[in-house]
């Protein structure tokens, strides 16, 4: 869980923030590129969500952060973001949305097949 005491100075004031435990894995910027920016060694909140779509994507980023480095000042209802996973990308291909620190935030995908389903981790190259 992100800690306000570790909040990065680059964050714009508002509800969402990134703390100093960020490993700059890119996960938040993938989910919410209009909210999160790159400060070269970590992410930061460059703009607070302005509408329901950006709020959902920022909450998806919060849930997907492999180091739990994204936080909110007040307790947030993450149910809509949690319920949005997995995200359908193509026929029978889904982005799971929860990234692991051990994989440096690599994405995992579910590929459905009549011959059996596959769970695939994809490394992040940025």
Which structural class fits the helix and strand makeup? alpha+beta
Distance between the termini: 25 Å
Poorly predicted ranges (pLDDT <50, ≥5 residues)? none
Summarize the helix and strand pattern as letters: EHEEHEHEEEE
Shape: globular
Residues in β-strands, percent: 15-25%
How many strands, which pairing sense, and closed or not: the largest β-sheet?
4 strands, antiparallel
Q: What integer value in Å does the Rg equal?
A: 15 Å
Q: Give the total of beta strands.
A: 8
Helicity, as a percent range = 10-25%
How many distinct helices?
3
Strand order of the largest sheet: 5-6-7-8
The overall pLDDT average reads 92
Question: Your description of this structure?
Answer:
By secondary structure, this protein is an alpha+beta fold. Helix content is 19%, strand content 23%. It has helices spanning 27-31, 52-64, 79-84; strands at residues 16-18, 36-38, 43-45, 70-72, 87-90, 93-95, 107-111, 118-122. The strands form three sheets. A four-stranded antiparallel beta sheet has the order 5-6-7-8, with no helix packed on it. A two-stranded antiparallel sheet has the order 1-4. It has a two-stranded antiparallel ribbon with strand order 2-3. Strand 7 and strand 8 (118-122) form a beta hairpin. The mean pLDDT is 92.
